[in-house]
Amino acid sequence: MSNLFSSMAQQLEATPLPDAVKKAGSELAALVEADAYVGEVYSIGYDEALVQIHDYNRQQVGGIPALSFLIATRIIPGTTPDARKEDASIVLLRVLDHADLPNAQEALRVRVENAQRVSGELDKTFDHRDVMDPTTNNLLGYAGVRCRVIGTFYSDKLPTTSDSQFDIMFGSDLSNYYPNRGLKVFKARGKVLRQIVNYRDPRLRNPADKDRLVQVGEVRYASTNRPFQQV
Question: Which of 13, 32, 143, 152 has the least CB density, counted as fewest CB within 10 Å?
Fold first, then answer.
C-alpha cells in the first residue's frame, strides 16, 4: 500500500507550489498517514458517511472501535497538496455502527452454511481454509461502517494576517460533497489524534494560551485496552 501511495506522490510533486501554499499543504498532509489506511468512503452525505473496510486493514491499525475517529480525504500520503484546492481538505468522521454492504444477505448465507458445516468440530471455525476458499474469504472480509460527519479540516488565510500566511481551520460541517468522487479513509492515531483532539481555532487562539493549557485526561479507543497487542 505504501509503495502505491509513493508512486502517486512522485507524479503529483512535479508541479511547484508557492512556499506559503506548500507549507499549508504540508500541514494538512501531516494528518494523513499511509500506514493508517483502513478503507474507502462509498457513500457520503452532510450528516453521515459509509465506509468499506477490509479485515486485513482493520487488523493492521489495531481495530476500529466504536466512537473512534477516522479521517476521509483525497490527499495522497507523501504528497504536498495545493492548499487552495477543494480536494485539499480532510473530513473528520466518528464511527457509529456497522453498515450492511449490498451483498450482506449473500455473505450471511455463506457464513451460516459454513458454520453449519463445522458445527461440533472444535478445531475449525467457519472461515477455516478447509471450509472457505481463499477468494470467498477475501471477498467476505469487506464490511461497512456507518460514521457521523463531524466536520472538515482545511487551510485558509487568517483575516488578521498577510496574504501569504495560511493556517489549518476546522468547520463543524460538510460544505460540499460529490457522490461519485472517492475518499480514502485513515484511522486517526498517535500524533494525528493528538492534533485533532487538541485543535484550537487559530482565529480565537491567544499566543499566551500555551502556558495556560491544563491537561484534563487521556484519549483511549476503547475500555478493552490491550496495549501489548498494539491495539
Answer: 13
Cβ atoms of 24 and 83 within 8 Å: the answer is: yes
In terms of C-beta density within 10 A (0-12 exposed, 13-18 middle, 19 or more buried), how is residue 180 classed? exposed
Those residues whose C-beta lies under 8 Å from the C-beta of residue 38, and which sit 6 or more positions away, are 51, 53, 57, 58, 61, 64, 70, 185, 186, 187
Structure-block grid coordinates of residue 188 = 486517526
- Here the cell at position 53 is 473496510
CA-closest candidate to residue 30, choices 193, 166, 181, 162: 193
63 has a pLDDT exceeding 80:
yes
Average pLDDT, the chain: 87
Q: Please state, in angstroms and rounded to a whole number, the distance separating the CA atoms of residues 66 and 75.
A: 25
Q: Where does the pLDDT of residue 223 fall: very low under 50, low under 70, confident under 90, or very high at 90 and above?
A: confident
